[in-house]
Amino acid sequence: METFNTAMFKNKTAVVTGGTSGIGQAVAVAFAEKGAKVWALGLRADKAVYPAGLDIEAVEMDVTDTAAVDAFFAKVDRIDTLFNGAGMGSVSEHELETYRKVLEVNLTSVFYISEVAAKALAKSDNPSIINVSSLYAQFGSAIAPAYSCSKGAVDQLTFSHALSFAQAKIRVNAIAPGWIDTPLIQPLKDIPEVFNGIMQRSPMGRLGQPEEIANVVLFLASDAASFINGSVIKIDGAYSIA
């Protein structure tokens, strides 16, 4: 079923960090399928595969490399949408070095890239930044304190940028995905007692799909969401309230 106009982002430009895998890759494809020129920034860009015929250019990018970020945005004149999808978690988040790295990727890069991209975004007639939060921003996690902290801070950064960028007409929102079927959760699938516990708590009895996240991102970037600013939208199949 076609939900959106296939030309709704014609002559628009989207920059998608983390656009070479997982949710970010699905977002990059969704924008391109609706007519946008897409810059997909991420690691292992040479391995990223997209459907033929789409205007997607994959760019190798470590989002914590401020010089590389500066160089990229210096070449981009106008941006309509920035999706800050790059992120990481780790099994060793109680170690200080890992904690710092997770915050650098999940939080500091979102702040810096948004600040650098703001000039190009301000040239759009409907500029939008969409960040990625998490249910862990509310829950916390015994095994992922850095990830949880970073996502809680992303919520606050979203609110703060929504206020500070409002004069430039740049809307800033965030999505908070639940359990989405990407390679990141494969280790959980391999532990039946853990994965079965997730499914038992999930009212809809299934994982979400990356495309279902991408559809919400498209909406938030569209003219239909022109008065949505400073919001964090859960996309979790009611997991968080079960």
Which architecture name does CATH use? 3-Layer(aba) Sandwich
Mean pLDDT: 95
Instruction: Provide the structure class.
Output: alpha/beta
User: What portion of residues is helical?
Assistant: 40-55%
* Tally of individual helices: 8
What is the strand content?
Answer: 5-15%
Tell me what you see in this structure.
This protein is α/β, with parallel strands linked by helices. It has a single domain, classed as Rossmann fold, CATH 3.40.50. Helix content is 40%, strand content 15%. The chain has eight helices and seven strands. It has helices spanning 22-33, 66-74, 96-121, 136-139, 145-164, 186-189, 192-201, 210-221; strands spanning 13-17, 37-42, 56-60, 81-84, 128-132, 171-177, 232-235. A seven-stranded parallel β-sheet has the order 3-2-1-4-5-6-7, with helices on both faces. Strand 4, helix 3 and strand 5 (128-132) form a beta-alpha-beta unit. The two termini are 29 Å apart. The model has no long low-confidence stretch (mean pLDDT 95).
Q: What tags apply to this protein structure?
A:
alpha/beta, Rossmann fold, 8 helices, 242 residues
In short:
The chain has 242 residues and is of the alpha/beta class. It is 40% helix and 15% strand.
Helices and strands in order:
Layout: E1 13-17, H1 22-33, E2 37-42, E3 56-60, H2 66-74, E4 81-84, H3 96-121, E5 128-132, H4 136-139, H5 145-164, E6 171-177, H6 186-189, H7 192-201, H8 210-221, E7 232-235
Parallel strand pairs: 1-2, 1-4, 2-3, 4-5, 5-6, 6-7
Helix pairs in contact: 1-8, 2-3, 3-5
